Task: structure prediction
Amino acid sequence: MIKAGIVGGTGYTGVELLRFLACHPEVCITAITSRSEAGIDVAELFSSLRSFIDLKFSDPAEARLDLCDVVFFATPNGIAMQQAEALIKAGVKVIDLAADFRIENIAEWEKWYGMPHACPELAAEAVYGLPEVNRDKIKRARLVANPGCYPTAVQLGFLPIIEAGFVDTDHLIADVKSGVSGAGRKAAVHTLHAEASDNFKAYGVPGHRHLPEITQGLSKIAGAQVGLTFVPHLVPMVRGIHATLYARLTEKKAVDLQELYEKRYANEPFVDVLPAGTHPETRSVRGSNICRIAVHRPQDSDTVVILSVTDNLVKGAAGQAVQNMNILFGYPETLGVSQIPLIP
Amino acid sequence: MIKAGIVGGTGYTGVELLRFLACHPEVCITAITSRSEAGIDVAELFSSLRSFIDLKFSDPAEARLDLCDVVFFATPNGIAMQQAEALIKAGVKVIDLAADFRIENIAEWEKWYGMPHACPELAAEAVYGLPEVNRDKIKRARLVANPGCYPTAVQLGFLPIIEAGFVDTDHLIADVKSGVSGAGRKAAVHTLHAEASDNFKAYGVPGHRHLPEITQGLSKIAGAQVGLTFVPHLVPMVRGIHATLYARLTEKKAVDLQELYEKRYANEPFVDVLPAGTHPETRSVRGSNICRIAVHRPQDSDTVVILSVTDNLVKGAAGQAVQNMNILFGYPETLGVSQIPLIP
Amino acid sequence: MIKAGIVGGTGYTGVELLRFLACHPEVCITAITSRSEAGIDVAELFSSLRSFIDLKFSDPAEARLDLCDVVFFATPNGIAMQQAEALIKAGVKVIDLAADFRIENIAEWEKWYGMPHACPELAAEAVYGLPEVNRDKIKRARLVANPGCYPTAVQLGFLPIIEAGFVDTDHLIADVKSGVSGAGRKAAVHTLHAEASDNFKAYGVPGHRHLPEITQGLSKIAGAQVGLTFVPHLVPMVRGIHATLYARLTEKKAVDLQELYEKRYANEPFVDVLPAGTHPETRSVRGSNICRIAVHRPQDSDTVVILSVTDNLVKGAAGQAVQNMNILFGYPETLGVSQIPLIP
Amino acid sequence: MIKAGIVGGTGYTGVELLRFLACHPEVCITAITSRSEAGIDVAELFSSLRSFIDLKFSDPAEARLDLCDVVFFATPNGIAMQQAEALIKAGVKVIDLAADFRIENIAEWEKWYGMPHACPELAAEAVYGLPEVNRDKIKRARLVANPGCYPTAVQLGFLPIIEAGFVDTDHLIADVKSGVSGAGRKAAVHTLHAEASDNFKAYGVPGHRHLPEITQGLSKIAGAQVGLTFVPHLVPMVRGIHATLYARLTEKKAVDLQELYEKRYANEPFVDVLPAGTHPETRSVRGSNICRIAVHRPQDSDTVVILSVTDNLVKGAAGQAVQNMNILFGYPETLGVSQIPLIP
Result:
């Protein structure tokens, strides 16, 4: 049994962490902090947790996070990089669900996130927490940079075909769609129900913060700098990411893409390769840590189409964080995160 | 470990039964039947179940349901009444999620359901499966009539105040709102997304099949025939029932309604009385077997307003069925049905 | 051709006023003010208006509203009461879409709106702009208090039966449901898509600001103080109000409710009484100024059920305001507000 | 004033045709046919039309469509090709909103639509009704093949850059998203609210009927056979299409794409090129005949991204049909189809 703390638990990744950790047989949640909600019952903010979580938000200044075995940062960008070092020195494992430690190139990080990085040394040490790529490194990590929601869906979709070296990596295209919960639980006009429902739009086409994260990950897989056009869209749904990925085959001989994907993910507990010719839907992973993938080659052209879906709050955030915690502490990887998706 | 069978598992109550039973530590699902889908993998129809359920739909004629310990009917009305008797004779416990055995007055049943009843004797024996009212009878039952979705939310909402004898039971009002999944997973125009979303309407005001079921239940509680105006509405959401209940106080002395409700449900694992002055929301029970209730007396008038929410597919159908199964077989009542609601 | 100004046009009632006035053959919009958006093209904020409205938001201090023939206040509560007097003195007709002039009892207004009233004399003069009740007074008004969205749907629903004196007005019940646009276009957590969609809840049961407005209106119709239980709910849709109204018949002789309603509204251009036995749906009035009503008496009990739907932004706000403007200036009442509802 | 008939008016394109034609100052609707609904008031099926349309569905056998000036086919595929010839011989102009006359290559049509073509000669004569490409031919046509919804959004998006010869037309990509109304108003499981809402998925990746239509149109523009990867998706909204288009620049010298698009569409009443750097949203054209387009070149790479939105039922169907009718009869192109989009 380990003691877990959560910093900044009033957002959607916070309530999801609580949902998973409350059921985890090896975890005891000892603290969840929030400056604004200190003293308030967690279940008062999130009525879904009534009778499941008997805990109050505590003031960050008073919470003894250094006594935890693991601390999750479910905070806005820029917080974890200020607090992680002290915790790590105290022997606490840290999992950051924000972006502070995802980008290795500090100048690049500072450009996209618009602030100086408070702790470049830790950024260098942090392990990017995509288990399907970095499982062994995660096992030995002190600090895990939990991947972003778009980057998880896109990287898992492209991974096998780029590893295999079959496509032109200078012109990858990721047309990605996200539910509105990806924007977080904060007051804003553009994500109001009356604005975002019954509507569809692209955003951030000139540049989105997840672009350098995805490019970094794909470049490592490719062993060379990749070129990526990344277009995110807002879908009038709550949860779910759907990545539609396009790549041009360079390998001229017959390639069995279906077999390639099935083999690559045969031992992955949370990646499900669908039968040939099918289309995953976001609700098929709603509330679960699964990524479902289908691979197509329409009209036998040289353009491959990969469809990859996740729940942005689970495999794209809190679920993957718990998966990483399981790896860090040697638990079975699916422990506490094997909930069945909710349909309908 | 008991063997469970499901008849007619291609609808929403079917997939929900599978979601709960697949996780239930004391249940092995041995058969799920469907005439139209026989031979098809369950997970092909419900992609959410891929890797969780490894079972094919079997032809009703070939499934050995008589070898089960319990059989759930997740069928349209009129099926269970034809097959339950043989199963019961074979020693199988039967839980009917349809309406065949809910109404004691056979003539009334035949009027509302438009067909002759195939098995009136069993209807007389069946126990109405609302544990908060009939727990002891359920324990000894051979056949459980699982309550309808509206009737569950309405009866649990009215129960304490009618038991206490505080209100005029001749003029009860139940203004009830349901998500679209209540209409089932069958092709129809009026429940298309393009028809039902961004829209709200009442329906069935002249008469709805759940009216006699609710009236029967409330009358038993009241010990006399009640008068009820019941108005169902269709909400553009997938899951959830919200009952707004109105009753006029007859008890003139000061009544602590909050205390009344809290006491009545103090030991009920699936009924949660909210703090005074609050409003339950349907998503606070999404995917869970909980009914949350708040009781109000606006402007200190003599009209009491009770708000009661459930997930229509869980406490209003499959979850309550598993709860009833647990009672029938002596398992802890929450076993396998204690999932945390999904927010957001 | 008259000159119209709009104060505070950045909300949903603002964009709706623009939609109607831009098509109105007798209106020229000369100014729309917004402190925060001054200098910005209206069509930049509301992309729907590109190519239809060629106007910039102007600073309230610089707009010459006194040169308008009519000024609409589409502002938060508390603004119009500070500016209306000067405009009226300048000969401008004023239509306030907020609540400043809706309640005659100033103490009551101050209690519900939580501020001192800046202009009680004008509140005494203002005409409550429900044409179906006050058409003649509106014709001669200088200041029109445009009714709230809930009050419009509830009053039109109850009007004929209360006028006829057929019901117990001490115990009226209005169970009312509104789309999320009723909360306005302002950043807030509880109306985020990720919070409000796929969810349903009541709110304000202990007390809602529209209660005194409705009670005042119904009491005038009844000729005596009425008792009303008013329960608003939030529906996961953008537009639309559905009022489900309950009243107990006191008139024992046979009453033809259908005929009563049809006669009362026979000459009303914007009230449509549906055939007996039917149920109006909110989308049937989407984008239009129509109120559709059906009247039921289920199971021949003495409880009457009236269903009344409007578009909260149109008949419940901007459309009714233009209807009032037409009355004020002697135009045909439907001029510029006869758009066909949008289905699907 | 011309006489218009509608064949098969019980679907969404039917109700939209009625919405536009009912307001059109030069049109009198003389007949609307439906085998299943003959004798029923149009307004009984579409409550939005109550008080706007006073017409009954008539039996196709009895309607005197030959007396019309123009007949719209809002029927499933395969109907118009059987009836158009007789009408045209009677001097009636025919506008087919289905796909019968969209594909010139009859063998190709028969392959994708799975039936023999009943009238290849007419298919050869028919004019493809995309006014921005074929305006002059439409003026002289007897039979207009109204474009599909996806094809309209995709062709208008690609048109300027392909005409200019700036891109590699062998590897075009159209990642397109549609609201659920695109599937029509017919009973089906996959478009139920409980299935399609809060969900997102691709479909038809191996092949979709709009692929040959788009390819034919783009090839004509390019003057050579183009290669297109076309991936449609289903969005949980009612109306709207969003096409995200990708093309690789071949022109190495500096190209001002913004200017190219603005110039090409400068005189088009229904195509709106947005300012550089912006993103159109589907609701900005809801209920209107406008197509809004933005063009991007992210990170100055050689991949161009074009965003194109329409209302699938208007510019993608009924609105464009009325636009074509206006062209056929010499009316101003916007007559009766200049409604302002509905936001929110």
In short: The first helix of chain A runs from residue 12 to 23. The domain at 2-146+317-329 of chain A is CATH 3.40.50.720 (Rossmann fold). Residues 275 and 294 of chain A are 7 Å apart (CA to CA). The radius of gyration of chain A is 20 Å.
